[in-house]
Specification:
Number of strands: 6
Shape: elongated
Strand content: 15-25%
Order of helices and strands: EHHEHEEHEHHHE
CATH superfamily of the largest domain: P-loop containing nucleotide triphosphate hydrolases
CATH architecture of the largest domain: 3-Layer(aba) Sandwich
Radius of gyration: 19 Å
Distance between the termini: 35 Å
CATH class of the largest domain: Alpha Beta
Helix content: 25-40%
Structural class: alpha+beta
């Protein structure tokens, strides 16, 4: 596989939760395991030395037991959680060192995220919720509504544009979240148990 085929590359990523992650990282370097670190410091090793790449067009699944770090890993990709060590590249560009402004631009233009909790705004219609990311990105109203309607059709919610979240089932609300991510036509779509209510 050439590096040009890689859309996402994760290299030696660690995430340690606690007030002094560097101390825990030093213990890891000396061979301590996560249980020992927790018992001695109270720090939690959420992700331990993860490395992998995802090719363009590939569906990549992270599986594990509850509490194993799946959601943490997904949030490291878009830096909703900051890594303690390691690097993440999107389309060959390292995103772990980006400024807040540059990261915001990457999130708006290149990444879509579907959360386990639907994260819908209750005061906005289905169409408005779906178009919200496009509105934030400055897309003109006519174009964002066109793209939102197309995404709603893709997830089987055509005809529900003027409904409000409380009028929808849990599965339908989750599909609105998916439509919102699809409307932006992201380079990469991140999903955290996105189909749990379907």
């Amino acid at each position: 596989m050439s590096h040009a085929d890689e859309i996402l590359s994760v290299n030696n990523i660690f995430k340690v939760f606690g007030p002094n992650p560097n101390m825990a990282m030093e213990m890891l370097r000396k061979g301590a395991d996560k249980n020992e670190i927790f018992s001695k410091t109270g720090h939690v090793v959420g992700v331990f030395d993860a490395s992998f790449s995802v090719k363009r067009g590939e569906i990549f699944v992270i599986m594990g037991l509850s509490g194993s770090g799946k959601s943490t890993m997904v949030r490291l990709f878009n830096r909703l959680i900051e890594p303690t060590a390691g690097s993440i590249h999107l389309n060959g560009r390292e995103i772990t060192g980006l400024s807040d402004k540059a990261l915001l631009d990457v999130r708006r233009k290149e990444m879509g995220m579907v959360f386990q909790s639907f994260a819908l705004m209750p005061h906005m219609s289905v169409l408005q919720n779906t178009a919200f990311g496009l509105e934030i990105a400055g897309v003109a109203e006519t174009e964002r509504h066109r793209r939102a309607r197309e995404a709603l059709s893709q997830v089987g919610l055509a005809g529900h544009e003027h409904s409000y979240p409380h009028q929808l089932s849990g599965g339908m609300q989750q599909r609105v979240g998916l439509a919102r991510a699809l409307a932006n036509d992201p380079t990469i779509l991140l999903m955290d148990e996105a189909f749990s209510a379907l």
